[in-house]
Amino acid sequence: MLASIAFYQNEFNQYLNKKVQIKAPESLYQPISYILNSGGKRLRPVLTLMTAELYGTSYKEALDAALAIEIAHNFTLVHDDIMDNAPIRRGKETIHTKWNLNTAILSGDMMLVQAYQLFENYEGQTFKELFKLFNKTALQACEGQQYDIDFERQKEVSEKEYLTMIESKTAIGLATCMQMGAIVAGASKGDISNLGMFGKNLGIAFQLQDDYLDAFGTASTFGKAIGKDIIENKKTYLYIKALDNLATPKAKQLRDLYTENLSIRPDEKVAIVKALFIESGATTLLEKQVQKYTEAAFDILPKLHIAQGHQMVLKHLGQRLMKRAV
Description:
Blueprint: H1 5-19, H2 26-36, H3 43-54, H4 63-84, E1 88-89, E2 92-93, H5 95-98, H6 101-118, H7 124-153, H8 159-185, H9 189-216, H10 219-222, H11 228-231, H12 237-245, H13 248-257, H14 266-280, H15 282-300, H16 308-322
Antiparallel strand pairs: 1-2
Helix pairs in contact: 1-3, 2-6, 3-4, 3-8, 4-6, 4-8, 7-8, 8-9, 9-15, 12-13, 12-14, 12-15, 15-16
């Protein structure tokens, strides 16, 4: 029988606190400890630990892989925040804001090295498969981030382009977490592949839900400033579908709002754009897409060679993620 999500979160946090220590030079390691202990849902390591146990292997065997993926994820957040010039992450100052730009870059680099070091605790074929998967995922994450940056300069972004971006930047990462747990447990190649499909579809739904929460969530629960994507003129799924469905005058208004030279306050801009998202039906379309990708993930579950009860655990987890407020 699998443990609860809270159990895996607690066990992982204890392991993280044991492994991530502040040492000299403190100015390098303190920011790393700061971001790793600044909250977060620990979704990625929980998926790794849980997946190992789906195949009869103790979660303890997967702790190093789980910690590697969590450190690497936070490394990307440090550098993403620099590129986005974001002042807040999880309700706290970002590293480059609290310290400085050089510290953020160097601490981020150090986190990637720490992630690689954790794989050294696995031997033989397990090490090779984990290392290969990690590198593949890291490359795709960089590609996804570049797409995201490119979209800021593009006048138009298609739905297909956007979905490709979030697949590379976010969804593949969730898939990797599950695949790593399966690799540690010695699962079959077929199951590792299917877990990748499950995680990818769930990851796309997760990111689309994240887009919605960025506009319509609350700062106290979401952990980031609400409307950040709108203020930064991010061409999210909501923006793309709103343009597709608004009448020409309203579509022009939305495009004009996504320019740099505006005489209105940021909060006014956010309020107007959100109203256009709702009027266009983009919010409803997004909800349908979330449901579509969630169901696509669930369709994979019967193909996995795990107990039916374990399949239901994964389904429950997916349902919980899609109903989240954070």
